[in-house]
């Protein structure tokens, strides 16, 4: 809005009134709106040729009545943001050329803008709820599609009403322009007698500012309509993208589910009874699959019920919050009690889910342990057979060793007898004193032999010394 004002003030060029009025008329014609007549507007329409003050006052009153009547019809008919903007355009036309009723018109326009903001917020909240509640896609989407069709019919009706209001606004604009020209002529004649020529320029400047304000408002309306179309396209695109992603996720989940079912079926076909070592019958496998399918169906049903209850809870919380705002906290106790109960139920649900998860993990662990024990049993049985074979070999070897041991014992007994006989034959062996004396003599002999060896060595040393002395004496010329 600020940029449009800056462009309008900087350029200094104003489009003609016929071109500015023709643009919305072409848009209304493209929308397929059919012009309609308003009896109240025809009865209260002013006469352009009437110059009296009563006619001017009647024109102003009729314009205000038509604007209020149009706003009331739009509010009762549930018109959207475009209808409110068209009503705001009609009011701004009256604001631009009616100085006396400006205060009331501005207040009505502010109220309508607030209503538009509230409706926009409600639409945003509904869109958020639609995206949040997208988990339960199905019948709810069909209902929403039916509501969208009803909304499209309502939009067509709103367009027709807007075309009618636009036509009335065009008629009012032409009447106000004629009235404005007449009033300006009278005002010019009055000011020419009282004020100077420069004051007339100020009046023309004021009229120019009002026209610029009107054109700026029309530009803002067009921008808002373009923004609304862009947001609608963006939301439609997001909805299609979310729908496509949901379909992809569902198809992928179905493929994974079927693969998992086939995997479990193969596992069950390959499993054996721990006691009989027989495979599981196909009927029992089919009963297991049927029970699991029933459980999955029940889980889906409970999940959908949970989603519906969560959405219902969200709506109840919103309603309760609004009631608390209106009743100054009278329902706060009930809300807190329901909140506590809801929290308790959520905790119970979480506990059940945790127990279910633990049981599933325990079942998986038990199956793994059972399989491991079966494999270990087979390995132990094979090892037991090997040990039995080794035991039989050891028993045969033990029998042979026992025979050898008996023979060795006989030989030992014979050697003992022979040893005893030989001891009896030897005297020294039988007398301990003789053995001690023999040992002493042996030690003495060894000692004497050592002494003899030392003396011989001493003798040889002395002989060598004597020979050396003789040589020295002879060398010195002495006589031995």
Describe what you observe in this structure.
The protein is an all-alpha fold and about 475 residues long. About 90% of the residues lie in helices and about 0% in strands. The protein has helices at about 1-10, 15-30, 40-45, 55-75, 80-95, 100-130, 140-195, 195-270, 280-325, 330-425, 425-430, 430-475. It starts with a helix and ends with a helix. Keywords: Cell projection, Coiled coil. It holds the Pfam family CCDC113_CCDC96_CC.
Instruction: Write down the domain tally.
Output: 3
Q: What is the arithmetic mean of pLDDT? A: 72
| Class based on secondary structure composition and strand pairing | mainly alpha
How many strand units?
Answer: 0
Number of helical stretches of at least 4 residues: 12
Oligomer classification: single chain
Kindly provide the radius of gyration, computed on alpha-carbon positions and rounded to a whole number of angstroms.
Answer: 60 Å
């Amino acid at each position: 809005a600020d940029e449009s004002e800056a462009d309008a003030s900087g350029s200094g060029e104003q489009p003609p009134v016929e071109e500015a009025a023709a643009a919305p008329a072409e848009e209304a014609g493209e929308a397929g709106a059919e012009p309609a007549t308003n009896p109240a507007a025809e009865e209260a329409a002013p006469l352009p040729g009437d110059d009296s003050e009563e006619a001017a006052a009647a024109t102003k009153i009729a314009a205000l009545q038509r604007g209020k009547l149009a706003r009331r019809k739009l509010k009762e008919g549930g018109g959207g943001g475009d209808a409110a903007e068209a009503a705001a355009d009609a009011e701004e036309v009256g604001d631009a050329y009616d100085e006396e009723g400006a205060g009331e018109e501005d207040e009505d326009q502010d109220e309508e803008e607030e209503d538009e903001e509230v409706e926009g917020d409600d639409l945003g909240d509904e869109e958020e709820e639609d995206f949040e509640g997208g988990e339960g896609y199905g019948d709810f989407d069909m209902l929403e599609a039916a509501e969208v069709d009803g909304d499209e019919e309502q939009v067509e009706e709103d367009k027709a009403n807007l075309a009618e209001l636009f036509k009335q606004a065009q008629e009012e604009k032409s009447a106000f322009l004629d009235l404005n020209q007449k009033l300006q002529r009278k005002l010019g004649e009055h000011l020419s007698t009282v004020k100077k020529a420069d004051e007339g320029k100020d009046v023309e400047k004021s009229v120019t500012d009002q026209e610029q304000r009107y054109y700026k408002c029309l530009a803002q309306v067009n921008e808002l309509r373009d923004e609304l179309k862009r947001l609608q396209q963006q939301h439609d695109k997001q909805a299609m993208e979310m729908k496509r992603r949901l379909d992809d996720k569902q198809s992928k989940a179905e493929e994974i589910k079927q693969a998992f079912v086939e995997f479990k079926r193969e596992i069950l076909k390959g499993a054996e009874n721990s006691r009989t070592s027989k495979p599981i019958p196909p009927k029992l496998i089919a009963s297991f699959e049927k029970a699991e399918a029933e459980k999955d169906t029940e889980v889906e049903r409970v999940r959908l019920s949970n989603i519906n209850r969560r959405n219902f809870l969200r709506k109840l919380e919103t309603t309760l919050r609004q009631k608390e705002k209106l009743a100054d906290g009278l329902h706060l106790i009930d809300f807190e009690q329901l909140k506590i109960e809801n929290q308790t139920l959520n905790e119970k649900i979480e506990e059940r889910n945790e127990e279910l998860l633990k049981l599933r993990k325990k079942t998986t662990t038990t199956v793994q342990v059972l399989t491991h024990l079966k494999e270990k049993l087979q390995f132990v049985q094979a090892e037991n057979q090997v040990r039995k074979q080794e035991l039989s070999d050891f028993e045969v070897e033990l029998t042979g060793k026992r025979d050898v041991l008996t023979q060795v014992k006989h030989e030992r007994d014979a050697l003992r007898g022979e040893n005893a006989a030989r001891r009896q034959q030897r005297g020294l062996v039988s007398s301990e004193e003789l053995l001690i004396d023999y040992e002493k003599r042996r030690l003495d002999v060894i000692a004497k032999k050592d002494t003899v060896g030392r003396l011989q060595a001493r003798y040889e040393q002395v002989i060598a010394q004597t020979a050396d002395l003789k040589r020295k004496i002879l060398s010195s010329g002495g006589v031995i």
